[in-house]
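User: I need a structural model of Cupin domain-containing protein from Lacihabitans lacunae for a docking pre-check later this week. Nothing fancy, just the predicted structure tokens so I can convert them on my end. Input:
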Amino acid sequence: MNIKELHTDQKAVSAVSLFKGENNMANAIQIQKNETLKEHITKIPALLLCVDGEVVFENEKLEKHTLKKGDYVHIEPNVKHWLIAKETCQLVLFK
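Assistant: Understood. Predicted structure tokens for Cupin domain-containing protein:
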């Protein structure tokens, strides 16, 4: 199975559960080129891994990171953040 097969091309942003454990989870996220995952907050620390494509991670603390295949960023709890896809991207979010 391939992570790209979990999503359709008809949605600008798609999220699918990959794994749920007792205390953790992983979601597969796809964002189409030039689309945005609007600002939101996580209540617990998270890690975002770019599997394919290119996406810009920004937060309210004015941090900005461009993620390409293999790049990752730690997401702080209780800090607004959002994503902008420069290319259609495949991401995995770990919490």
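Before docking, keep this in mind: The mean pLDDT is 95.
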